[in-house]
Amino acid sequence: MTNTQVTLVQIDNYGPWTVTPEPRREADLQTMQSRLYADISQFVGNRDGYTFFTRFDNMIAVTNGLTMADHELLQESVGNRYPVTLSLGVATGTSPVQALSDATTVVQDAGSAQDEDRRECLEGRTIDDPHRTDDDVQIAHFDVVDATGQYTDELNAFDSFIQIEQGYAELMRHMRHAHDSLSFFVGGDNVIVVCPDLESDDYEEAIGHVETAVDVELQVGVGRGSSAHDAGFAAKHALEVCRADGTRVELA
Amino acid sequence: MTNTQVTLVQIDNYGPWTVTPEPRREADLQTMQSRLYADISQFVGNRDGYTFFTRFDNMIAVTNGLTMADHELLQESVGNRYPVTLSLGVATGTSPVQALSDATTVVQDAGSAQDEDRRECLEGRTIDDPHRTDDDVQIAHFDVVDATGQYTDELNAFDSFIQIEQGYAELMRHMRHAHDSLSFFVGGDNVIVVCPDLESDDYEEAIGHVETAVDVELQVGVGRGSSAHDAGFAAKHALEVCRADGTRVELA
Amino acid sequence: MTNTQVTLVQIDNYGPWTVTPEPRREADLQTMQSRLYADISQFVGNRDGYTFFTRFDNMIAVTNGLTMADHELLQESVGNRYPVTLSLGVATGTSPVQALSDATTVVQDAGSAQDEDRRECLEGRTIDDPHRTDDDVQIAHFDVVDATGQYTDELNAFDSFIQIEQGYAELMRHMRHAHDSLSFFVGGDNVIVVCPDLESDDYEEAIGHVETAVDVELQVGVGRGSSAHDAGFAAKHALEVCRADGTRVELA
Amino acid sequence: MTNTQVTLVQIDNYGPWTVTPEPRREADLQTMQSRLYADISQFVGNRDGYTFFTRFDNMIAVTNGLTMADHELLQESVGNRYPVTLSLGVATGTSPVQALSDATTVVQDAGSAQDEDRRECLEGRTIDDPHRTDDDVQIAHFDVVDATGQYTDELNAFDSFIQIEQGYAELMRHMRHAHDSLSFFVGGDNVIVVCPDLESDDYEEAIGHVETAVDVELQVGVGRGSSAHDAGFAAKHALEVCRADGTRVELA
């Protein structure tokens, strides 16, 4: 059984801030939010977690191995270096979707995303070390078969993007509703999916579904570990096998 | 008539680099590519352009006002500070899609995105100052009506994201095929669209289409200017009017 | 004759901020201030200026080629992305020391560095384009002769640093008082000096003075240009000649 | 007794890289090295260590609490995101100067700072957890008495800097030779000193020495802890007492 620890990272009162006293330069907002994401990705990543930019104002992280004290330090460090602050909700469970749902609830219960008085709340609970296992996290790393040859070098950059985006949109919805999984676009033609206990057949089914629905061919490497990095790293290696052998699904 | 200058920013041979000699830590890749995007966004943005992260390995920028020398400096500066290099294609035209298509072609003609020998190519042409006008760029800034109340504070963070993502995916495809426009998700519930000469009715139609197709309610502010910043800033102010008055389409 | 445009960049009310409500984590302050410096260095640098970190809370830049509008944009962009704001003073003159002194005065006249009510002031004047010449800026780039062989590979890292620091401290004081020049340590064993119209003999004299005073052997390349980058780039090339030929002073 | 763990961070073959194939833009080098420092400061800092930029190409960190695995991860992460790599030497001891000296030796033994073949070496040893104590690190945080009133608001920015720099240069040399301590300028008018077991009298003596030698008045807060952050945070609080009560030396 998996036991995924999920953290919702929400910028406090971000929407109003971006237009107060008047709209701020878009390039500055883009720079600030992508650097904030990069910093969180480093902090969580060098503790073997994964952070996904998602909407940027709401980011989702897999934080197995991080304590509440780590979360508190992240909040403090961001508060010392950025013009915005973070609220964090943490929850765990066998279903990543349920864990995220619980993490969201504790933040929502603390106040609205646009509540001026809700600042730097930190809610929820982490998995204590003694209860962590090598099977806690399952990560699937998908990419598009020969994206460069089929799209990047052939279509204009936006139509390539539409193709990849469509494959992602379809996969994201399907994995969430059919397989209780959270899918995130991570750049290029890569999608990383945080999964419960899924089998090879589930991935075959998902790849088939996406190909039928939007005619985008995917391949996937799947890994398991005590942290997102361990599981994800195994998944990347498995995906290398797909690329080398032309297979569609490889479990580490 | 609009005359949009579009730049395709492509990281040279990025895919192979990310797995050579073996897969690199995902958190490092995420950090590196989002900081690279942030730097490009600052460089282009403080010359009044807009840069969109798109796929991160292929970014798209609206660069009216930037010269080829500016593009060259961006390439040199990135080459001095990152482990990867950039190839740039620049083109202009009354249709943003056609301009991007031309910008893509000049890069593709220089070599494959995964060609080891294609490094830091810079191709294409910019609009000379004497030919620039205050009408060159049209930007539409969309967001979701009451996203916080309807989604962020109600659904779990991933289902909110799916809703917003669906609205974006539908808008992106529709604006590209029905209106020759390039749509980019820029975080939160915001989508910025680079348009040719469109009228109020076109935006009404697009909003109606998205609502019918995926039941997501959008509002939009539209601006015009000699640069992406000028047009986009006017669009942001127009969107503030939508938010204040409850209207759906506002032209600056 | 040189005509150096100098900008004083002062973080508003920084000291009090670092200890309010209680002392902030040192590592966060170090990170924030060095990234702020890096951003200013990029903004000014990709307009061909030089920025020196100096004390970090007070930075000094050579900004020939930057307009007051550029300075305003820098202030706005920093204000949008950092928890602190900047006040800027700009002045010009044949003596870099006098120019900096004037730039400092206009900021001091606007209020104390620790005045809560003095925020984002922008004072002074720049050189209008028609008045700029190819001789406006003179830069001397010094380094220590065989620093790696004599110090870095021989002494412990701190004693190497003390040696280099002593050479810098002596050079800085001497160039300021004997030659109206501003000297800045820029990392490694490099010191960049912003000079008025100085001759080869002046540099010979300065090198002799430092060698006698603290027994540190320096070499220097000197360049001239319409901007700090043009002058500094010529100086770097001249210094390469010293390194290759074993000469002590080279004028581009 | 203190037991300081010191890490020497040396950029591999940096000097040659900065001028290959020809000198790189100074602003890019300044940006790259200050951001690299900022990243190391975050990585070490959020594990309760302190990093000092020192010469930028050779940085010194107090790393009590960091394991060799942490050091390896830092190397890997920097190698994935920067155009340069790091070599690290780690050593421990009751004298910070001796520890740094040992850390330097293991790096020097691995090869010259400008040896093309010495890349990412990691040498030395850390203190095992069971041997760590709450007294391992002693930090003294100095600043200049009323620097703003006496210098920043009175002298031009460079002459203020010269005053502060002179105080620092004198303190650095004295603390190293008289008290086996490592002193680092950290911005503004602040100097952080990594000390062995020193008493109140030692600090009184040092402050007196600097005042006599260069007429700069210092005050100092001193703290002790199991990590640089714990000791340094206590020192910052003690320095606040000096500021409030007008005392010169405060031990936490």
UniProtKB/TrEMBL annotation, chains A, B, C, D:
Q: Does the keyword Isomerase apply?
A: no
- Which keywords has UniProt assigned to this entry? GTP-binding, Hydrolase, Nucleotide-binding
- Molecular function as annotated in GO: GTP binding; GTP cyclohydrolase IIa activity
Keyword Transmembrane, does the record have it?
no
E.C. numbers: 3.5.4.29
Coiled-coil stretches, from where to where?
Answer: none
| Reactions the enzyme catalyzes | GTP + 3 H2O = 2-amino-5-formylamino-6-(5-phospho-D-ribosylamino)pyrimidin-4(3H)-one + 2 phosphate + 2 H(+)
Tell me where on the tree of life, at the top rank, the source sits: Archaea
Q: Which InterPro entries match?
A: GTP_CycHdrlase_3, Nucleotide_cyclase, Rev_trsase/Diguanyl_cyclase
Pfam family example for this protein?
A: GCH_III
Q: What does this protein do?
A: Catalyzes the formation of 2-amino-5-formylamino-6-ribofuranosylamino-4(3H)-pyrimidinone ribonucleotide monophosphate and inorganic phosphate from GTP. Also has an independent pyrophosphate phosphohydrolase activity.
Give the family, as the similarity comment puts it. Answer: Belongs to the archaeal-type GTP cyclohydrolase family.
Instruction: Please give the name of this protein.
Output: GTP cyclohydrolase III
Q: Which organism is it from?
A: Natrialba swarupiae
